[in-house]
Amino acid sequence: MKKFANTACSIMLVSAAIAGSAEAHAQTVGQGHSDAAAQIPPDPPEVLTEEEAAQLLRVDRGALLELASAGEIPTHKLGDGWRFSRAALLGWLAG
């Protein structure tokens, strides 16, 4: 009988652990932390800094600033720097 009691106790502990794990997973998924959600990249920004625009166009920052200063690419001067619309740059590339 003692062996049966130990087995029953072990089964109850395993069942409780499984239930707790399932509950924790359900709470995590309910909070938007599923494995699939973690793999979806965030939307890119609509307004780009000089560095981000250079990365998008795959040019160095100096070349980007030359194009911006010459008025050859769509941009806006903002203070001491430039800002770029992602959509306008992609439209310009599609040209």
Mean pLDDT: 77
Distance between the termini: 83 Å
| Tally of helical runs | 5
Based on CA atoms alone, the radius of gyration comes out at 28 Å
Largest sheet: 3 strands, antiparallel
Which percent range fits the helix content? 55-70%
The rough form would be described as elongated
- Order of strands, widest sheet: 1-3-2
Order of helices and strands: HHEHHEEH
Query: Strand-residue fraction?
Result: 5-15%
Number of strands: 3
* Structural class based on helices, strands and sheet pairing: mainly alpha
Spans of 5+ residues with little confidence (pLDDT < 50)?
1-5
- Number of separate domains: 2
Written overview of the protein:
The protein has a 3-stranded antiparallel β-sheet. It has 95 residues and is mainly alpha-helical. It has helices spanning 2-30, 35-39, 50-57, 61-69, 86-94; strands at 47-48, 76-78, 81-85. It contains 5 helices and 3 strands. 6% of the residues are buried. The chain folds into 2 domains: 2-39; 47-94.
